[in-house]
Each structure stands twice: as structure tokens, then as C-alpha cells.
Amino acid sequence: MVRPRLGAPGLGLRPPRPRWRTALTSRLASALVLGGMATGTGCRSVAASSTAQNSVPAASLVPVSENRTAGPWRTLFDGTSLAGWHNFKTPGAPATGWSAVDGLLVRTGDGGDLVTDREYANFEFELEWKVGPRGNSGVIYRIDPTADVTYISGPELQILDNDRHPDGKNALTSAGANYALHAAPTGVVKPANSWNAIRLIVNGQHVEHWLNGAKVVEYELGSDDWEARRTSSKFANSNMYGRAKRGFIALQDHGDRVEFRNIRLRELP
Questions:
Q1: What is the pLDDT of residues 163-192, one digit of tens each?
Q2: d(CA 177, CA 197)
Q3: Which ranges in 92-184 belong to alpha helices (H)?
Q4: Is the torsion defined by CA of 160, 122, 97, 128 positive or negative?
Q5: Does 124 lie in the same domain as 201?
Q6: The predicted structure's pLDDT at residue 69
Q7: Are 95 and 86 in contact (CB under 8 A)?
Q8: Quick one: 233 and 251 in the same domain?
Q9: Which site from 3, 143, 146, 195 is most exposed, i.e. has the minimal number of CB atoms within 10 Å?
Q10: Is there a single domain that holds both residue 131 and residue 261?
Q11: What is the domain extent for residue 17?
Q12: Is the pLDDT of residue 28 over 80?
């Protein structure tokens, strides 16, 4: 049966709305308006809300740790000094080869890897880095203080100019990779002389590498898969590699100029 269109010529007017429905509609409308005023949203339309959601800045899309017992974020570089840092194996001595330059932490000469004064076990670590053409560096974590060099004990999140450095041709040693063990995807790192953002999560045996808002590597220290990768890599004869439960965090001196900023960390329980 075809329902006639109400209000069409010759078909009469729309039946009057029952009073109870009119009153209910009025009360609902009032509640929506008051609710919007209370939340500060006013009478924003669904279309406007959808537009707002689609315009979220890319940086805010990076997931935040769901662990509500994590400690507060702490800045690890004050922009003017190397307080809180020292060259590996020389605690208490002034750092060499690294400088605070115009608010940046910069590798400016020979000095060796720069490590935190404190040791850390479980944490989220963030910074931004920039290298020149063919530049190479890294963030090495849970470094055993008794190791001869940082990379013998601590896994490394690779920092690299993928386009010009030979290591960029191999996904296992490209920017964002767990150096020599877990490959990073292509198309995430920005070119030389651009700022890149990393986020390193180390929680128990679980590790995540984030690069420019994308999770590029994830692994479990000591797992069967991890052990198979280690024994097939350059670290096969290093029994200290990846074993420490806590240790220093290092900015690697690989002979190239590298700049860092916005270095911060929060500890996880």
C-alpha cells in the first residue's frame, strides 16, 4: 500500500501532534541544551563534532601508556649543560665530545658514548634527533656498567640517515631498527637534516620502538625468537647482550654530528 504524502493537495493537513509527545520533545530539547552548556560543548552539531575528530593533530595520535601507575615525566637535558650525563666508564668526570649548543645536546667531537648518570630498569624514553647526510648514532639501553663498551650489553634503537648511509640499505640496521636483530619498515624516517621523534618503551622483557608516531619494532627480550635472532647476529658471542635488568641509557658516538632535543623519561613500575 502506498502511503499518501501528508499535506499534498486534496489530502488534508497533518494530524495534530499529541500533547504528550510535544511536551516530551520539549523536555528532551531542554535537557540537551543544558547538557551541552554544562560540558562546554554548547549545541555543536554531529557534523561539527566529526570534523573536529578528523582534524586531530598527528602528534596526538601517538598512543599514551595505559599504565596509570607510571611515574612523572622528567626532563633529562636542561638545554644548557650536560648535568645528569657522563661519558661511559668515566662517571663523575666532565663529559667530552658532547656539548649543549643553542638548547640542543650535540655530539661535537670525539669522546665516546654519552650515558645517563642513573641506571633505569622499566621506562618510557622520548627524544627528537637529527643527523646530517650519512649520519649514524643510536640509543642504547640497559647498559651493564661492567661492560667494556655500551653495545656489548645494551640493545640499540638505530638512528641513521637511511638514504645515504650503507646501513640504510638493510632493514635490520636502518633507522628505528633493533640494531641487527629486528628490522624497521621503510617510509617512516625523515631524511637527513630533519627532526625525527622516537619513543622507546622498556617494560620487563617487553620492548617497543616508535618512530615519528608509528610503532616500528616490538620484541620480547630473552624469548625463543629473540635468542634465535641474537645467535644469528654479530652478538652471538656476547653473553652480556640484552641480559641486564637495568642499566644506563646511552646516546651513541659513531663519529658523526648528531643533535638531540626534548629528551625526557618516566619510569614504569
A1: 999 999 999 999 999 999 999 999 999 999
A2: 14
A3: 150-153
A4: positive
A5: yes
A6: 79
A7: yes
A8: yes
A9: 3
A10: yes
A11: 13-55
A12: no
- DSSP one-letter code for 102: T
What does each C-alpha distance from 240 to 18, 35, 91, 187, 206 come to in angstroms? 81, 60, 21, 33, 18
Residue whose C-alpha cell is 573536529: 52
Burial of 94 (0-12, 13-18, 19+ CB in 10 A): exposed
**Same domain? 94 vs 197:** yes
- Name which of 205, 201, 92 is nearest 145 in CA terms: 92
Predicted local confidence at residue 44, as pLDDT: 33
Range name among 52-56, 106-110, 257-261 with the lowest pLDDT average: 52-56
Alpha helices, DSSP H, located in the chain = 19-39, 46-54, 150-153, 224-231
Spatial separation of the C-alpha atoms in residues 95 and 99, rounded to whole Å: 8
Domain assignment present for residue 147? The answer is yes
Q: State yes or no: pLDDT of 64 exceeds 80.
A: no
Give the global pTM: 0.76
Provide the domain count of the chain.
2
Helix (H) or strand (E) holding 249: strand 248-251
193, 110: one domain: yes
